[in-house]
Each structure stands twice: as structure tokens, then as C-alpha cells.
Design a protein that fits this description.
Blueprint (H helix, E strand, L loop, with lengths): L2 E6 L9 E6 L6 E2 L4 E6 L4 E5 L4 E6 L6 E2 L4 E7 L1 H6 L11 E2 L10 E5 L20 H10 L17 H13 L32 H16 L2 E9 L1 H15 L7 H15 L5 E3 L6 E3 L5 E3 L1 E3 L2 E3 L2 E2 L7 H16 L13 E5 L18 E5 L3 E7 L2 E15 L5 H16 L7
Parallel strand pairs: 1-10, 14-18, 18-19
Antiparallel strand pairs: 1-8, 2-4, 2-7, 3-6, 4-5, 6-8, 9-10, 11-21, 12-13, 14-17, 15-16, 19-21, 20-21
The structure holds oxidized coenzyme A.
The site of oxidized coenzyme A has 20 residues, from α6, β15, α7 and β18.
Length: 428
């Protein structure tokens, strides 16, 4: 005959109000004796609470975050009569199974049972980079052949959850074999409990940061980057830009150096076609593009977005300035469709409106180069036997060294400098 038994928290030494950090079962689950039901975390360790016998979970009385002590009702389970009368599982490890002193135990259908606690096996609170996981998660990872030191924990204090192990397996299986960048083996990041050193606050990353973070990471580790720094004399360009700016401000068009840079970059790409290419999937051929779509990194409150301006070669400075204003406003208002961020050939990341002297932008794969732009400033330049004040624009070109050689890169930035110092060349 089926019987319902209550499962209570046993004595675990001096510990009281122990936080529940994971509940592994729910009502309706069939569990086997020794199968972990919950994970608890004391000051010293995490530990699993296993089922004392086979049965079906009827009702779970605790949830993550609850603090429980000896005698707390954990759950009730339906067991077969044979199991419960003679075969309440004995402890596998230290704590004995015992009938708890609970009034409910007086009724024949709800005999409460406290279970053995499985002591933690190899748990480390891991500033040293060792995996921070409960015994059941270790067991689960072992079954799948997962090295837990390579799994990043998303649980409290960096603890590895079952979901983390599953995501790790999915990500590993999804990695391309061979070709560009598959199978990179790196050791896990150290998981540090910062609260040990002072007050902290945890803030989730925005959705955009999570998405772009994965791509940035892939591009950073799988593309051999070099960054070439250079300067362009934009003294004359700036005079022209200001004239244009005054003229078009009445129409609500703001003309910034970026509109000139878009045009100049395309001219340099036409002279150096490898900059308008991508490696094909085999990694053995270059796909050369005959169109010129340029992505522009836009800083939004939720993170970085890279909308793409189409056919930049066929547009003038004023048209580009107008489109730039429109797409950056849309990006900041979250009104850009996903298609507006696709199909780019090259990216410009301009931090010039903010400051800086140089940086190392990350290539936006499958593109092969990206131009970083910092703030222009007046510098003394030696010309015709004397120093003259010139407005110099810092350029930082990161390129994929599998596709572009250093000499070609510096020819590209020199050409850019030449065009920007004499913008009449943009119409050639
Ligand atoms: N040197 C000096 N001044 C510059 C400059 C430069 N290189 N670039 C722009 N400026 C000036 C502009 O002329 C403008 O001046 P006024 O307000 O006096 O007219 C001011 O700086 C602000 O420009 P802006 O930022 O509004 O416009 P922009 O066309 O230069 O840039 C956009 C547009 C969308 C690219 C920019 O706003 C932005 O988001 N930049 C950040 C990109 C980014 O985060 N990149 C990092 C990627 S890696 O994490």
C-alpha cells in the first residue's frame, strides 16, 4: 500500500538557518534513494541532501533562499509500503537516518523521515580557479565528461549550476571544428567571492552587452589582431567642415568629422581592395566585395550597436552626415531592425567626440579591419623649417593579420591621412 512520508531536515551539527541554494526536484518527480533533493550552503561548504528512499515527490515545502534547520519539513513523498516499512534508506555517509520527533509522525500515512546529509566531496570556494559546485553537479558533470574548471558558474558566489554545465556542453558542441577559431582550450576564469573583501552589488549585463560580448570575445581570441596607429592632418578639412556645418545646420544636419572619415575610408578601400574582403569558411580564399557598406559603432545606454550605412561610395558628405544622425538616433531609441546591422564590409569606431589618443578596436568579423578614431588636437608639426600648429586626428587601424600584412596596413593609414589632409581627393 502506498504511504506518504514527510522528509525532514536532520541534525547537521551546529549549523542553523542554513540557506537552500538549489532545489533539484519538484512535485510529481520520481526519485531514487540517494538522489540529491536539495543543496545547502553552510559557512564552510555546500552539501547535498539525498532522498532516503525511492518514491514520488508529492509536495516540496522549501525553495531556493529559504533558511532551514534541523526538523524543517523539506518535502513529502509517496512510497510503496514495502519500501517504507522496512527499507528507509540507511545513511550512506555520516549522518544517520532517524525518525524525526514530529507530531505528524503519529499518523500512519505521514511518517516524517530525516535523511542523511552527504558531506561535500572536494568542494572549494574558489579564489584559486577551482570549480565551485555541489556534489550532485560534480556527479552530473562527470557523467557528461565535463571538466568543471572550464565552466563558468552563474549561481550565487559563482557556483556552477546544472544549467551552466548544460550550456557549456551546448557551446562546446556548437563550436566549429577546424576552420576559423574552433576548439580553443583555455583555463577557466578564477571565480572570486568579492564580498569577502568588501561591500558589493551585482548588476546584470544588458541584453545587448550579453549578445555583443560573446561576439567580441570570439573575435578577440580567434582573429590575430594588429593595431596600426597613425595621425592625419585635418586642419584644412576642419575649416571646410565648419563652413559646411553652418550651411546645413539650418536643415538640422550636423556635419562631424565622421562623415568625412566614412568617405575617406571607402576611397582607401578602393585603393586597397583586401580591406573590403572576408575569409571564406575554408580559411583559404578571400571573398572580395564590390560594394561599400560601412558599419559605425554607436554608443547607446544599453551598450554598443553597429548599424551599417549602405553604398557609402555612392553618397556625398552631406547625405552621409544626415544618415549618420538618423541611424545613431534610431540605435539609441532601440528602433533599429536587425537587418540594419547586417552586411557591413568595414567598421569605424569613433570615440573622437569623447576623447582619447589611441585605442585597439576589435575587428567585427567576418570583416578584416576596423578603424578607431580618437579626439583631434592641435599639435606642433615641423614644416618648412619651423613648427606650425596643425589639427591632428589620431587613427587606430586594427586588421586581421591572416589577410593583411603590416606594410599594407600602414599604406592604408598613410593613404587615409593623405585624403583627409586634402579632401579634394575625395572626389577623384
Ligand atoms: N575629434 C574632435 N572632435 C570630434 C571628433 C574627433 N575625432 N569626432 C567628433 N568630434 C566632435 C563633433 O564634431 C561634435 O562636436 P560639436 O558638438 O561641437 O559639433 C562632438 O565631437 C560630438 O560628436 P558626436 O559624437 O555627436 O558625433 P560623431 O559623428 O562624431 O559620432 C557616433 C557619432 C554615433 C559615432 C558617436 O556619437 C558615438 O556613439 N561614438 C561612440 C562609439 C563607440 O562607443 N565606440 C567604441 C567601440 S569599442 O567599445
Amino acid at each position: 500500500m502506498a504511504e506518504i512520508k514527510q522528509v525532514l531536515m536532520p541534525d547537521i551539527g551546529d549549523s542553523k538557518d542554513v540557506p537552500v541554494i538549489e532545489v533539484m526536484v519538484k512535485a510529481g518527480d520520481t526519485v531514487k534513494a540517494e538522489q540529491p533533493l536539495l543543496t545547502l550552503e553552510t559557512d564552510k561548504a555546500t552539501m547535498d541532501v539525498p532522498a532516503p528512499f525511492d518514491g514520488v515527490v508529492k509536495n516540496v515545502s522549501v525553495k531556493v533562499g529559504d533558511k532551514i534547520s534541523e526538523g524543517t519539513l523539506i518535502l513529502s513523498m509517496e512510497t510503496s509500503a514495502t519500501e517504507t516499512s522496512a527499507d528507509v534508506s540507511p545513511p550512506t555517509t555520516p549522518a544517520p537516518v532517524k525518525e524525526a520527533a514530529n507530531p505528524a509522525a503519529a499518523t500512519p500515512v505521514t511518517a516524517p523521515v530525516a535523511m542523511p546529509i552527504v558531506t561535500p566531496t572536494g568542494f572549494q570556494s574558489s579564489p584559486t580557479g577551482k570549480a565551485h559546485a555541489s556534489p550532485s553537479i560534480r556527479h552530473f558533470a562527470r557523467e557528461l565528461g565535463v571538466d568543471l574548471t572550464r565552466v563558468r558558474g552563474s549561481g550565487e558566489k559563482g557556483r556552477i549550476t546544472k544549467n551552466d554545465v548544460q550550456s557549456f556542453v551546448k557551446a562546446t558542441l556548437a563550436q566549429p571544428q577546424g576552420g576559423s577559431g574552433g576548439g580553443l582550450q583555455v583555463s577557466a576564469m578564477p571565480v572570486v567571492d568579492f564580498s569577502r573583501y568588501g561591500v558589493i552589488e551585482t548588476k546584470p549585463l544588458s541584453r545587448i552587452k550579453k549578445l555583443s560580448g560573446a561576439n567580441l570575445h570570439r573575435n578577440w581570441v580567434s582573429i590575430p589582431h594588429i593595431t596600426q596607429h597613425d595621425e592625419a592632418d585635418i586642419t584644412e578639412m576642419e575649416v571646410f567642415r565648419k563652413e559646411l556645418g553652418e550651411e546645413y545646420s539650418k536643415q538640422g544636419i550636423k556635419i562631424t568629422p565622421l562623415a568625412f572619415l566614412l568617405k575617406a575610408v571607402v576611397t582607401a578601400m578602393q585603393q586597397h581592395p583586401d580591406f573590403n574582403s572576408s575569409l571564406d569558411a575554408s580559411g583559404e580564399n578571400l571573398v572580395l566585395k564590390k560594394y561599400f557598406h560601412i558599419g559605425v559603432a554607436v554608443d547607446t545606454p544599453d551598450g554598443l550597436m553597429v548599424p551599417v550605412l549602405r553604398d557609402v561610395d555612392q553618397k556625398g558628405i552631406v547625405q552621409l552626415a544626415k544618415e549618420l544622425g538618423e541611424i545613431s538616433a534610431k540605435a539609441r531609441e532601440k528602433k533599429l531592425p536587425a537587418t540594419a546591422m547586417q552586411g557591413g564590409c568595414f567598421t569605424i569606431s569613433s570615440l573622437g567626440g569623447i576623447g582619447g589618443t589611441a585605442f585597439t578596436p576589435i575587428i567585427n568579423a567576418p570583416e578584416v579591419a576596423i578603424l578607431g578614431v580618437s579626439k583631434a588636437s592641435i599639435k606642433p608639426v615641423f614644416q618648412e623649417d619651423k613648427f606650425v600648429p596643425r589639427l591632428m586626428l589620431p587613427l587606430s587601424l586594427s586588421y586581421d593579420h591572416r589577410v593583411i600584412d603590416g606594410a599594407e596596413a600602414v599604406r592604408f593609414t598613410s593613404y587615409l591621412g593623405k585624403v583627409l589632409s586634402d579632401v579634394r581627393r575625395l572626389v577623384l
